[in-house]
Amino acid sequence: MATPMRTKMNKTKKVQKLEKPLKSLQGRVKRVKKLEKTLKSRQATLKKVKKLEKTLKSLQARVKKTEAADKKRDRKEKNIDRKKLGTEDDLLHFMQSVHDHKSPEAYTKNDVENG
């Protein structure tokens, strides 16, 4: 028969043999939990990035539309400027003809500052 002292020693040795793998497993569990937290935060970051990419695409589309509208408006403004130039030429032609056909009694005051 085994003595109670030997059984205690055998149990203690068995427990000591199991404690080392148990600590190793506990360390692994901690690392896995840490990795899970990291993964969750990275997934949240990825969601934010995808949302920002969608926003960026929509903003780029708006910029393209705005640029196209600006170009179209600029073309219209250039056409208006050309019309204004034509009107100035007509006005100069009209003033020249009035000046050429005025009577000798007519008086023209060329005072720009006082009107």
Automatic annotation (TrEMBL):
Q: Which domain of life is it from?
A: Eukaryota
Q: Where is the composition biased (Basic and acidic residues)?
A: 64-91
Disordered: where is this region? 62-91, 96-115
Q: Under which name does UniProt file this protein? A: Uncharacterized protein
Q: In the record, what lineage is assigned to the organism producing the protein?
A: Eukaryota, Fungi, Dikarya, Ascomycota, Pezizomycotina
